[in-house]
Amino acid sequence: xxxxxxxxxxxxxxxxGLYGVLTRRNAIGILVSVxxxxxxxxxxxxxFAHFGRGIDGQVLVLFTTALTVxxxxxxxxxxLLLFRRRKDILxxxxxxxxx
Amino acid sequence: MTDHILALTVAAPFVAALLMLLVPGRNHPVLRVxxxxxxxxxxxxxxxxxxxxxxAKGGLQFAQNYPFVPSFGIDIRLAADGWSVALFLLTGxxxxxxxxxxxxxxxxxxxxxxxxxxxxxxxxxxxxxxxxFVFFLFYEIAVLPMYLLIGIWGSKGKVAPAGPFKSLWKxxxxxxxxxxAMKLTLMLLVGSAAILVGMLAMYFAMxxxxxxxxxxxxxxFPREMQVWVFPMLWLGFGSLAGVFPFHTWSxxxxxxxxxxxxxxxxxxxxxxxxxxxMRVGMILLPEGAATWAPIxxxxxALNVIYGAVSAMAQKDLxxxxxxxxxxxxxxxxxxxxxxxxxxxNGAIYQMFAHGIMTGLFFAxxxxxxxxxxxxxxxxxxxxAKVMPGVAAFFTLAGLSSLGMPGSAGFVAEFLVFAGxxxxxxxxxxxxxxxxxxxxxxxxxxxxxxxxxxxGPSHEFHDLHDAKRVEWAALWILGTCIVAFGxxxxxxxxxxxxxxxxxxxxxxxxxxxxxxxxxx
Amino acid sequence: xxxxxxxxxxDALLAGGVLLxxxxxxxxxxxxxxxxxxxxxxxxxxxxxLSFAVDTSGSAFDGAYVGGEWPLFFKRLFFAIGALxxxxxxxxxxxxxxxxxxxxxxxxxxxxxxxxxxPGAQNLVLLLVAFELMGLPLSMLAAWAKTEDTKGQDRxxxxxxxxxxxxxxxxxxxxxFGLSLVYGMSGHLDLAGLAAAPGSPLLTxxxxxxxxxxxxxxxxxxxxxxxxxxxxxSPTPFVAFLSVAPKAAGFAALAAVFVKGFGSAAAVWAPxxxxxxxxxxxxxNLMAIPQSNVKRLLAFSGVAHIGYMLMALAIGTGEATxxxxxxxxxxxATNIGAFLVVNAVGGRDADVDIGLFNGFSRRxxxxxxxxxxxxxxxxxxxxxxxFWAKLYVFIEAWRAGLGWLVFLGALLAVVGLxxxxxxxxAAYIRPPAADREQPVAVDPRTRLAIGVCLxxxxxxxxxxxxFIENALAAAKAFIAH
Amino acid sequence: xxxxxxxxxxLFVPLGAAVLxxxxxxxxxxxxxxxxVSVAGALVALAGAxxxxxxxxxxxxxxxxxxxxxxxxxxATAVGIHVDGTSAWMLLVVTLVATCVxxxxxxxxxxxxxxxxxxxFTYQSLFLFAMNTLVLAPNLLQAFLGWELVGLVxxxxxxxxxxxxxxxxxxxxxxxxxxxxxxxxLIGLVTLYAKTGAFEWTAVTPVAGFVTLMLFFxxxxxxxxxxxxxxxxxxxxxxxxxxxxxxxxxxxxxxxxLIVRAxxxxxxxxxxxxxxxxxxxxxxxxxxxxxxxxTDIKKxxxxxxCSQLGYMVTALGAGxxxxxxxxxxxxxxxxxxxxxxxxxLIHAVHSNELKDMGGLFKKMPFSGAVxxxxxxxxxxxxxxxxxxxxxxxxxxxxxHHLYVPLAALAIAAFLTAFYMTRTVMMALxxxxxxxxxxxxxxxxxxxxxxxxxxxxxxxAGFGGSWLAGLTGHEYAFHFTLVGxxxxxxxxxxxxxxxxxxxxxxGGAPIKRGMAPVGVFIRYGLMDRLSTVAxxxxxxxxxxxxxxxxxxxxxxxxxxxxxxxVGGRRLRGLQTGNVQDYVYAVALGIVVLxxxxxxx
Lengths: 99, 519, 481, 599
Prior knowledge:
The complex is a heterotetramer.
Chain A: H1 3-23, H2 27-53, H3 56-86
Helix pairs in contact in A: 1-2, 2-3
Chain B: H1 5-21, H2 28-52, E1 61-69, E2 74-80, H3 82-101, H4 109-128, H5 132-143, H6 145-153, H7 169-172, H8 177-205, H9 213-218, H10 223-240, H11 249-256, H12 259-284, H13 286-312, H14 317-338, H15 341-372, H16 388-401, H17 408-422, H18 426-451, H19 468-486, H20 489-515
Antiparallel strand pairs in B: 1-2
Helix pairs in contact in B: 1-2, 1-4, 2-3, 2-4, 3-4, 3-12, 3-15, 3-19, 3-20, 4-5, 4-6, 4-12, 5-8, 6-8, 8-10, 8-11, 10-12, 10-13, 11-12, 11-14, 12-13, 12-14, 12-15, 13-14, 13-18, 13-20, 14-15, 14-17, 14-18, 15-16, 15-17, 15-19, 15-20, 16-18, 16-19, 17-18, 17-19
Chain C: H1 9-27, H2 35-50, E1 59-60, E2 65-66, H3 69-96, H4 101-117, H5 124-142, H6 157-186, H7 191-195, H8 201-218, H9 226-233, H10 236-242, H11 245-261, H12 266-288, H13 294-315, H14 318-346, H15 360-363, H16 365-379, H17 385-399, H18 403-428, H19 444-462, H20 465-480
Antiparallel strand pairs in C: 1-2
Helix pairs in contact in C: 1-2, 1-4, 2-3, 3-4, 3-10, 3-11, 3-14, 3-19, 3-20, 4-5, 5-6, 5-11, 6-8, 6-9, 8-11, 8-12, 9-13, 10-14, 11-13, 11-14, 12-13, 12-18, 13-14, 13-17, 13-18, 14-16, 14-17, 14-19, 14-20, 16-18, 16-19, 17-18, 17-19
């Protein structure tokens, strides 16, 4: 596969992720969609590194993976908190703050 | 010590304000003494400056530089010219009278005096500051305390909803004191925004090194730049001078403001605006001024007659006086627009004369309001019977306002009209003169309706004449009106000296502009 | 590689401080955990003092981190913010989250650690790690709620935190994706390498995605929408922190990536940034006008201030960047002070309505005067720091030929005064409500923090010279390196 | 003492009195002592004026000139004094009449409260200063100062009974009308200054025509020429001595004096003079017509003043300055006499109305006699003062071929004699009214001034050639056809009056002839006109004020409101749903991304 194909796939994945963030009502779904976005970036980084941009990209992939894990942990904690307060995790119903 | 007399005079009220921070708010007598002392000290400073200003030498005297923000070329440059001397005196007089007139204030006097004194420090600063940036700073200090002064100590008015913008009333609370305070602050600050932009344009046109006004006066700014910067300064400063159509803060603001604040605001602050137009706009940007002078003059003439005619229809006493201020400030701007020595002398003298006159007016209105609990002119009548002193001073102020010889107002108006005529602008002078006549109509009408006729009706049960310290303010201002009307050269010579120093450059520029060349 | 950690000395000590807090927390009883706030403040103050004593110049991690005046300026700023926040939070946190004080301060401190690392980062890897280290605790702290309390101030904390988190996570994804493109097109992750990259559409796309992602943190329009909701819902002392520290860090990151990394491509991103600036100025100011909740009002006012700072960033010169630093410092002092006063007035109420400020000046004249000065500074009135900050920005904008933006900015500053005065109006002119006539209770540490802010605001306002010189020098070092 | 010293004395002593009374409230409120201060001041001023003239005209020929820079150093904008024959004589007339009036006032206002009396005499002293300022003016600038000041005092004195609504109204009306006319003075003054750089009486300038026209406009106001005379009848609301001094003898004559003084300017403007002649002639006739139907004795005299001022203006318009000046002097004496005499009658019956009088001659022979002396002097019966000056005016007008004004003056002469006869008959003879039954002569303080003025009304006419010499003109009485005709017409008027209102008729009220015309002119036209003009001004004011409040200010409010509403609308975007927030982010990156790729 060529680099273009990887970048296209990554771009596609990123868009799917973004679409998910915009449309999933379930907080877990949103977390998964964010993962998709980040992993699109990871695919890009790995592919660029593979196609001659040096090792830096792969290093960054490791870091982003770790960071994403931390991020998801925080996210799940927030989802839990939300659930304890509201007995649901539908983000569009949590709209008490506005205007 | 005496080298720093300007700084001392500017600082005296401010220091008094700082001292007050240490005094507990309940201790009214001490606060009053500090407030009056601060004001009197600054008046003494002003008198000292007037006595020691070397008229033969002229120019900028008592000059001192205090570094402030060297990296941007901002220094506190203080120096007095002839105009400063006159306006310094005015500020000292009005402030002294104002602090005396507010001696009876019992609602939170501490904050009141602090704000008032800070404000007046700013006013003093503007008149002697030769650094454009610090000029602007002082200007802002003079404008901003107004919000709280009106908002806290003001009185409430009411404006019935009507007109094409009727729907706004429910959102804006038009007529209330907070509305007035807010409108005043915002309109003046929009003006400040324009000034700031103009100021930066000048700063960078000169290389971005210094805000020194003396250097700026000698620097020849490009014509195209002058032509767009001048209107910024004119409308920016002009909004404080009540230039049509940016005058609408003034009636509401003055009507809502407490006595001393109205005195200072109409008496001195509005002059800052006109002073700014002349001192910054015209002197630093002569070609811009010459290009725009016809429009400035036309708007000023409109101001005179428009303000006077509006005042005629007012039924609220404070509104009458407030619109009269709009009208009289038109005379100042008209004088400025003539670019003629008599016109300029008249403009500055009108600042002086109108300051004292309107100060007296507002002091009297305050007294009347305090006793009658009403400002509704048609409901009054016959007050002269119980308050003859107030009636006499009111008449005196009215006479100055309509330009009666023997009062300071005449000298000023006469010079302005002469200047307008000499500069060939009949179409300015005639409306302005008619405006002066309309002044006679509404002032005497108000006098008649308030003081003359039968009455007072029994709803005004605690009317009485001025008492003790209240007399002081009235006498100070009344004496000044007559003294400076009979012996105008007491200050006119100072003014004329400075005018003769500044004007030639502008006249030259006007010739250049008239010829269309001079690049 | 010889790890010369000298430039990172302060950060390393701060990391030690985080651990210390964790450990000390274990040994304290719930009732005495308030001392952790003092400890945190002490750590920050100590580091702040130490920053004047040690030399942190040089580079570490093979050039991935470079010390010097630029990071040092930010470090001092963050230490000061941290100390003020810790002081201002103490009683508030101790009262509400008695058992979870340790975590609160630990997270706060590690968040600051992320910030202090960030300005010196010369490599995108380190930059991203620091960015996330700062970002993740923020979401947690924002949602720091007392779950049992369903009516009080932290009623909506979970929602506010969640909003911050969701928008933040999406933005992180965008940032990552953008940087991956940048890496792909330039082949470098270090800033110096970016500067040399040849232009291409994908690089520009990556650049803009990065810009969008990072703009979330500073709350530039249209990435600002979490700001009011989160401010409204979160614990107020923390909002004081949230409203200034991440902004400063975000600007440090933006400056690093754009002014420095893509400095040569300024012609590409500056117009986009100017568009964002204009939007931010207008939307922030307009939306603040109708707000009746003071925290929301200050949130939108914060958005408007970000607009002014973006103006300086968009100019991109050394002087402008220096002015940006000055603005950040002044804004930090002002806004922390304002929020701490708001916290004192708001007390336990869920919504800090403007009505709560009625008669404030009669209840507590001193505190009200402080609030007034903070508000004036926010509005940009002479002799308080906000004025100089705005003025310097305007001067630099004018120098860069952005006269129209100066005019717009000046006009909108007047609009700003309108809504700030609404608070001043309530505080000074309206009479107090019948049940709220007693003075506002303020604990001594909050009092101290407010006092420090006040001194800073007035000091930098009355005598701006040394501060602006310092900021200009830091920016000069940053550009020159 | 030199004439200038004496003139300064005459100028400043009354000012001193005024300032003293003005500043020392306690003294002023004592009433009669305050009055004595003022009278003393007037006497000193009178003595000064007499001494100047007694010094002989050698000292007055070149004229003593003494000025101080006022608006600037140097003589261009100076104030000071200029004493020559013209001003010295005018000074005497003014101080003399003023002294008489002040002394008379002591008696007339005897019943006023002390504070009011003090106020009155303060104004009186101030008036004397103001009038002397005008009379001694070395240039037009100072003349204007005095001009305005006398207007001010007139306002204050008309409004002396300020608690009476009609007096208050009359005072402001007088001020407004004269001040409006004064715009002309101001414009003329400013024009002169703009063109010559000074305010000299003797300026030679191409704009003299315009300047004089403007000055004449001011004169029309102050000297009550049609149509700006409307204030004068109302001004009778003031105390009668005030009417005598200000609104008959001196202040209203200031306009005439101004033209006399500014003769060199007017000489350059034949056009203005012609206009003056016609306006003056018309006014003389017009006012005389109205005077015929008045029922208020002061109003009769007021319109008569109007009419006589018309005579003077016509004379000046004919270019005969001396004729105008001479008539000014004689008129000052006999009209002051008439007013004071009328005041004496009014004082006795407490009413201005002629119908409340009647048969007073028997009760008050002295007052009646002096009133009759004044009346015949006014009617132009030889050898009383009015005869000589009126004769001179008619002659001058005829000499300059101004036949239309001449005809008007002739008819006016008839009417003058007629209405004065009517007044005398109705007031002094016939059946006494109820009020007149208890009338009695006033005290010596009122009689003395009446006597002095009556004497002057008899003899002043013979001083014509002396006065001419003093002021640098030539005059000797000689009989002319037109003068004789004028006298004859006057006598005819007296006869007609006697026939209609004589003892045979018992002083019946007028019901024949031109009564409807006069009433229409007086009440139907002029008063209505001024009311309409005033109402119109207020209406314009109301409209402008409305526009200012609701349109101009409305736009200001509206621009603030736009921001407010804009902010509110934008709040709608902040829905509270976090996914909408992410939409904003997505939108941002799409726009930015599109920009990035497409640029």
